[in-house]
Amino acid sequence: MTTQPTAAPSQDQGPTDTPLLEETIGQNLARTVERFGERDALVEVQTGRRWSYAEFAADVARLATGLLEAGIQTGDRVGIWAPNVAEWTLVQYATAQIGAILVNINPAYRRDELQYALTKSGIRTVIAASSFKTSNYERMLADVRENCPELQDVVILGTPEWEDLAGAAADEDRLAQVAAGLSPDDPINIQYTSGTTGFPKGATLTHRNILNNGFFDGERVEYTEADRICIPVPFYHCFGMVIGNLAATTHGAAMVIPAPGFDPAATLHAVATEKCTSLYGVPTMFIAELGLPDFDSYDLSSLRTGVMAGSPCPESVMRQVIEQMNMKDVTICYGMTETSPVSIQSSTSDSLERRVSTVGRVGAHLKIRVVDPATGEVTPRGQAGELQTHGYAVMKGYWNDPEKTAEAIDD
């Protein structure tokens, strides 16, 4: 009798040769500024505003001081409700510098969803655009404010209140004192997951979670200080603020904002005028860009890489992205908000077939397994099951929801 070979178990782990970053986001930004202070950090194409790393760090320090002077303390929740504007990024790094917990509010939220996010996370201060598309944020905030007992301050971008907050004289001694009390394992960000049932859950992420995820995402696409990343994906999501912003600042690369919301023409204009080397998007965004009537008029010769995620990419689209957009090193990512977000990513050297038929390899310092949800046993390769992630990227838990946390994290 011939014995059939046993299939290998559905588990794998990523490389560990590059050590984890054991520092806060503020400490990491300071190191980047020391090395690349004169290089571009942030560019907002539609307004023409741009910051070098030295200028960006100075504005972050002013805003961080303003938040402290407004009474924000380490662990307080600060909401950000705005589309992709430069101020979003400044708030992201300023809150991290003082250990406040940034709560990302989806720009598409309506009143009920807004009120839920404000009350569930206990937001003390919310910083918001006055409006975006058909949403009047200022009016909605006024409508729900009386139902949010912990909400003390609403600051609208572009108003004198914002200018006072962002224009405070940086108090370096006070900032250093606050920073000395922070730990990489402190919670720094709450992102609400859409989920399939019930209200969204607030995935709570630490410096260590998202700083390292951004760093290793950037390592996989071989970022250096010479890269310029066009980020049309939303900042309120991990794709924008982690794979985008934190991948950039951990490598000294430039963050390029093409427009407040996705616009295919504005995106390609930004790539062409700012000589971007990397472009992000979900497959439908790339399809929209490729479908522009004047696509051939944009000079995309500077592109070499990028990240595609969110849904499977048809081989024909991937081939067009590589051949017509010059993105020969584009990578595919898989993950979830609860894992900071990326746990699996393809490599720049992977074949076209591998990039469209798989989601790549396990990320650095992470372990992945597929288990039978009925038994908890690891399945043989080729058998469906529940994918589980272990390692630094796993969230701290769902904010103020121990029951859901216990369901999601089992060891």
Summed up, the helix count is 14
Shape: globular
Instruction: Please state the structural category.
Output: alpha/beta
Distance between the termini: 42 Å
- Poorly predicted regions are none
**Number of strand elements:** 19
Largest sheet, if any?
A: 9 strands, mixed
Helicity, as a percent range:
25-40%
Describe it.
The mean pLDDT is 96. The protein is of the alpha/beta class and 411 residues long. It is globular and about 65 Å long. The strands form 3 sheets. It has a 9-stranded mixed beta sheet, sandwiched between helices. A 7-stranded mixed beta sheet has the order 7-6-4-5-8-9-19, sandwiched between helices. Helix 2 crosses helix 3. The two termini are 42 Å apart. The chain has 14 helices and 19 strands.
Q: What features would you highlight for this structure?
A:
411 residues, alpha/beta, 9-stranded mixed beta sheet, 14 helices, 35% helix
Outline of this structure?
The chain has 411 residues and is an alpha/beta fold.
Topology (elements, then pairings):
Layout lengths: L10 E3 L11 H12 L3 E5 L4 E4 H17 L7 E5 L4 H13 L2 E4 L6 H10 L2 E6 L8 H8 L8 E4 L3 H7 L5 H9 L6 E7 L7 E6 H14 L7 E3 L7 H12 L4 E4 L6 H11 L3 E4 L1 H8 L14 E4 L6 H10 L4 E7 L6 E4 L6 H6 L3 E2 L3 E6 L14 E6 L5 E2 L3 H7 L3
Parallel strand pairs: 2-11, 4-5, 4-6, 5-8, 6-7, 10-11, 10-12, 12-13, 13-14
Antiparallel strand pairs: 1-17, 2-3, 8-9, 9-19, 14-15, 15-16, 17-18
Helix pairs in contact: 2-3, 4-5, 8-9, 10-11, 11-12
